[in-house]
Amino acid sequence: MKADCRLYLVTPPALEPAAFAIQLAAALDAGDVACVQLRLKDVDDDTVRRAIDVLRPVAQSREVAFILNDHPRLARETGCDGVHVGQTDTPYRETRKIMGADAIVGVTCHDSRHLAMVAGEDGADYVAFGAFFPTGTKETEHRATPDLLTWWQEMMEIPCVAIGGITPDNCGDLVRAGADFLAVVSSVWHHPEGPGAAVRAFNKAIAEA
Predict the structure, then answer these.
(1) Per the annotation, does 165 bind a ligand?
(2) Range list of H helices, 87-209
């Protein structure tokens, strides 16, 4: 199995950009992080734009990819490195047309092998599976199991992201099963010792797995 699993940070669903930029910098400076996804819920485009303007430079100046959740046109306009789309968002092919060939486009596939195969064959840069564990971040209708990651690794070259309730304590099974990236939200931003400590704990757990 590949041992090069990396962290994929997802922002809290609500944040104040200037204050959050400090937390984000602390997290990124603490250890290896592959990318940051800005995922704000129930806000208008201007709010998203303002958050991008503040947070994108924090990530990109550290050579960390900055990905926007579900707004391909906005992602393109604002210089994001890519976009993540769910099954009810803009369809992958339309998103790719908007973003262009060089941008990162990832697709949520829940616990579905079929959706993942479709996304992979269409040319997605990664597929995301989950939720693997109970999570308070969003309602989970889908529960995925680690064997899904192993199956994907055996079938496809495209990276897979595991998401849903992942913590430094429970991530080992997912790393061993073949997750290329661990997408984490509250276990980083709500860590009692701060986001930097969380990133260090995750990187240690990944290395030990």
Answers:
(1) yes
(2) 92-99, 113-122, 146-155, 172-177, 186-189, 195-208
Is 186 labelled as part of a ligand binding site? yes
23 is annotated as contributing to ligand binding: no
Q: State yes or no: 89 annotated in a binding site.
A: yes
Is 137 labelled as part of a ligand binding site? yes
Q: Is 145 annotated as a binding residue?
A: no
Q: What's the predicted TM-score (pTM) here? A: 0.96
**Would you say 194 is a known binding-site residue?**
no
d(C-alpha 8, C-alpha 1), whole Å: 19
Residue 37 annotated as part of some ligand binding site: yes
Would you say 158 and 120 are in contact if contact means Cβ atoms under 8 Å apart?
A: yes
- How many whole angstroms separate alpha carbon 159 and alpha carbon 125? 7
CA 39 from chain centre, in angstroms, equals 9
pLDDT in tens, 108-134: 999 999 999 999 999 999 999 999 999
What structural domains does the chain harbor? 6-208 (3.20.20.70)
Give the model confidence (pLDDT) of 179-206 as tens digits: 999 999 999 999 999 999 999 999 999 9
How far does the chain reach from its first CA to its final CA, in angstroms?
11
* 70 annotated as belonging to a binding site for a ligand: yes
